[in-house]
Known about the structure:
This protein has helices spanning 3-7, 13-24, 38-46, 65-71, 84-93, 130-143, 173-180; strands spanning 55-58, 77-81, 100-103, 115-121, 144-155, 162-163, 166-167, 184-195, 201-211. By secondary structure, the protein is of the alpha/beta class. It has one domain (3-211): Vaccinia Virus protein VP39 (Rossmann fold), CATH 3.40.50. The protein has a seven-stranded mixed β-sheet with strand order 3-2-1-4-5-9-8. The chain has a two-stranded antiparallel sheet with strand order 6-7. The longest helix has 14 residues, at 130-143. Bound molecules: S-adenosylmethionine (SAM). Residues 14, 18, 32, 59-61, 63, 81-83, 86, 105-107, 121-123, 126, 163 line the site of S-adenosylmethionine (SAM).
Amino acid sequence: MTSNEANDLHVPATSALWDGTYASKDASQRSWSEDEPEASLYFIDKSHQVPSAPIIDVGGGASRLVDHLLARGYSDVTVLDISAAAIDEARRRVTDESVHWIVADVTLWTPTRSYALWHDRATFHFLTSAAGQTAYVTAATSAIDAGGHLVLATFAPSGPATCSGLAVQRWSGAELAEIFGDGFSLVETTTRDHATPWGSVQPFTWVLLERRAD
Length: 214
Ligand SMILES: C[S@@+](CC[C@H](N)C(=O)[O-])C[C@H]1O[C@@H](n2cnc3c(N)ncnc32)[C@H](O)[C@@H]1O
């Protein structure tokens, strides 16, 4: 199977690939690891959430964002990831029983509730097929409350073309705003460099989008 086939919609091998990555590499060996999710928290602060706001981290993996959200007093946090191994790792660290954990492929997932904030750092860019991207946009559009927010980070146009052996699609802020369409308005976009644990620099595009009323 090629990398692109593995990225296609309805291909279960993707979860096995991510499980294998989390099982075989510790946090210091994963390019996306960061101790302080500084850019995520900057944009979450910009979206002005109340402490009871429902927040979902899509493709959250074993990220420490959930720890930071709990420390800031957010009481309704959900983490979704395709990898059960990633979710298990996060659950061993985060013992707060208020957190909701979901193992699912976001492109096949039907949200059963709505969220004031949808956060995604470095997951959407793995969707390289139009079908996968459309399914993601449909899920986000249905799950985010009117007036709610989407914080999204992907590799920037000058960023890497692959991650974890998978092809990615690189995006500008204008392109992200366009694919999320009329249901969202662009509040802010920026490019920020992420330093991997071994010191490589990866430029990311960040956007803060606001869900328009239907
Ligand atoms: C590069 S990692 C980023 C993890 C986390 N967001 C962070 O910033 O540390 C990408 C994550 O997306 C997850 N993922 C990939 N494809 C997915 C999909 N279709 N649905 C849900 N999660 C997915 C992977 O398991 C992995 O945890």
